Amino acid sequence: FFERQSRAYSHNKALDCDHIYGDTFTLQSDAVEGIGNNVSLVFDEMDFGEQGTARILICGRAPVDNTIHISFTGSTGTSRQIIEFGKSDTYVEREFELTPVSGKQSVSFIFLPGSNFDFAWFKFQGR
Length: 127
Prior knowledge:
Elements: E1 12-13, E2 19-21, E3 26-27, E4 32-35, E5 39-47, E6 53-62, E7 66-74, E8 77-85, E9 88-101, E10 104-111, E11 117-126
Antiparallel strand pairs: 1-11, 2-5, 3-4, 4-11, 5-10, 6-9, 6-11, 7-8, 7-10
C-alpha cells in the first residue's frame, strides 16, 4: 500500500495557491510578485498528519523586511504564527521555526500593510 505524500510536505509554488486575494500582487511565470497590502494566499487541504510540522522553508525576495502571518485553520479552530523575512535583493531560501501544527489544515499566508514581497515557493518540514 503506497501512501501519497501530503501536499503539506511537498514543494508548493506560491502560484499553486487555491485562493489569492488582496490589494496588490502580480502573477508571474514562477512567483507571485509585488505582494503588498492585505494580500492572502490560501492553500486548502494541507494534511500534516499526526506527527505534524514545526518548520517551514520559504523561497522569496524582499526589497524590505516583511512580517508574514501564517494562519492555520483546522477542526480545532484557527491559530496564527508570525515570521520575519528579512530584506534580500535576490530570491533566497530561509527556514523558520514554527509552533508545532498537526492534522488537516487550511494554510493562509497573510501580508499586512507595509509588505513588499516576491513569493516563489514554500515547503513544510516534518518533525
